[in-house]
Amino acid sequence: MEEGRRGSIIDVFSTASAVGKTLIGINMAAELSSQGYDVCLADVDLQFGDICNYLHLMPERTIADAARAVKEAPESFDAREFLDVYRCDDISFSVLAAPIRLDEAYNIEATSVQNILQNLQFNFDFVVVDTTSAFSEINLMVMDMSTIITFLGIVDFIPTIKNMKIGCDTIRGLGYEDSKIRLVLNRSNSQTKIELGDVEKLLGDHFYHVLPNDFEAARDSIMTGVPLVHTRNTALAGAMRELVARYTNQAVEQVPEKRGGGVSSWLGRFFN
Prior knowledge:
This protein is α/β, with parallel strands linked by helices. It is built from eleven helices and eight strands. It is globular, with a radius of gyration of 18 Å.
């Protein structure tokens, strides 16, 4: 491994399920690949990871195999031996698959995942990590290692917003720099009577980036196994490209200032 090389880790996290983490992680990896970076997409949703299902891959080896190998021979371990490669025209990125069997997930320790990700950092420019929706030992470790935490949320129901608020407060309480946490809104124009501004006041922060709702395009991408950013010229694909551009051009991006203050709307009554 090269002594000076240490790739960036982008953690894709949420406090709610079915918010689009896997789809966005896949499109991040695809767009980074199209920009010429060496990319690995790691599925650390150990129990119910769906990356290979979305990409129509049939992995021969998974993170469970890698975890066993790194424990048995840490000095000679090479994570690249446990990767599949996704290719579509000019897009090519590596994939570390989630376990195939549910019981395998329970035998994977956080230290093993940490060693695997560290190894991947030395071999790739970017490691995009799709995680489960929980503050587990493994997820907290991934957050610590990450260059950027993409905290994905949606504004649909009060319980979802409540969990987003708890998640934001918890992550801020971990002491990370503000620039590490990127609050991203998905499905921004879905049918809801909840005002976006009210949610931002509740969270005490602007959304760093906003992704529009496009169920049809997302569904077609999953059915075909082709990332949106590759084949689709839609508002959602464009917004995903813009998000990645902001991540790869740190010197020119402008991160919005934090917004403080209380919540004066009806939404605030649920949290006071």
